[in-house]
Amino acid sequence: MAVQNIKIGDKVRFMNEVGGGKVTALLSKEMVSVETQDGFEIPTYIKNLVIIEPDLPSSSQRQGSGSSSQRDQASFSNSSSQSSSSDRYPEVKSSGFKEINQFKGNEFPEFIFAALPDNPGNPPEGKINLYLVNDCNYTLIYHFATKIVGQYTTVDAGLLEPNTKVELESIQPKGMGELPEYCFQLLYFRKSALQLEEPVQKEIRISPVKFFKASSFVKNNYFNSPALLIKLADHPLKAELDKLTDKELQQVTLTKEPKKITNTLLPKSDLVEIDLHIQQLIDDIRGLSNADMLKLQLDVFRKEMENAIATGVKKIVFIHGVGDGVLKNELRRELQRKYARYPFQDASFREYGFGATMAVLRK
User: What's 111-234's CATH class?
Assistant: First the structure.
């Protein structure tokens, strides 16, 4: 089905449900924003809309008589009675920003460029579909372009809601031999934040050889079949950890002797408390970066979690404090992914405030 030529101002109705409204914004090549009679703005795919009354130009615009200079003179002569800017730039109504689709634990910015083959067993036999995945609670505005011999060509742009994905384009088998550079500009934000995030600008060159190897495509949480995944942005602390070499990590371990952790087993409750405050784990933190300290805290968390499971502890409480929430979010992300079988929740507010997480290991 051909995509309809929908414009701002067109009156439309929904194909799959009752009602309709007026197009107020073009969000991408496939989606627009429709304002309903109740005043709500609803992002809607163009393919799910039917135009019932197009936004036609005024009669004076349709006549188009006279030369361009004459029309320009006429428009300037009428400027005293009506502002020309209001004619040239239609006003787009906005109902404000709404943050939706929030997932527990997805607090860090994480954006993935993904290549999904139609035929995972033999990728070159079919199309390769390119996707952008927003794997976090940030709202993302993206610009996707290709670069060939220094020339950038915009392929797609739009707004991507938190924890969703969008197909950018498809590569046909005949085009896999010579690939362009894939370029991204990303601007991401939250409804409430302590700082403005730095925009991401990235240019990616993919070797065509990767598309000819089934091993390049791996199982993942984003698609039902294997895909090639390339990270576009990650949390700053994670990036610092990735830059550390094995030798540097070994030096940190040798020079900073962690304290011996003593489990606190509370009587009659089978409840273990583990204090993850860095001062409780190591005597001297001089020379340690934030990434070093976070790694040490997460290593202790994993060790104590495994020990509690092995020894049959019922519940374990990790005291992480409030702070900027980095340790808490990383800990909960790990619980979601590695220890998904064990439910977790905020520990007792009366005893720990907002600074602790409790995992239930057995009833």
Answer: mainly beta
Average pLDDT per 10 consecutive residues for the chain, totaling 363 residues: 74 81 85 82 83 64 46 44 59 84 88 90 86 94 92 94 94 82 94 89 84 81 90 65 52 50 50 86 78 89 90 89 83 91 86 84 80
Query: What is each CA distance from 262 to 70, 265, 266, 276, in whole angstroms?
Result: 87, 9, 12, 12
In angstroms, the CA 222 to CA 312 distance is: 34
Residue 190: closest CA among 260, 279, 101, 112: 101
Candidates 3.30.1370.110, 3.90.1210.10, 3.40.50.720, 1.10.510.10; correct CATH number of 246-360? 3.30.1370.110
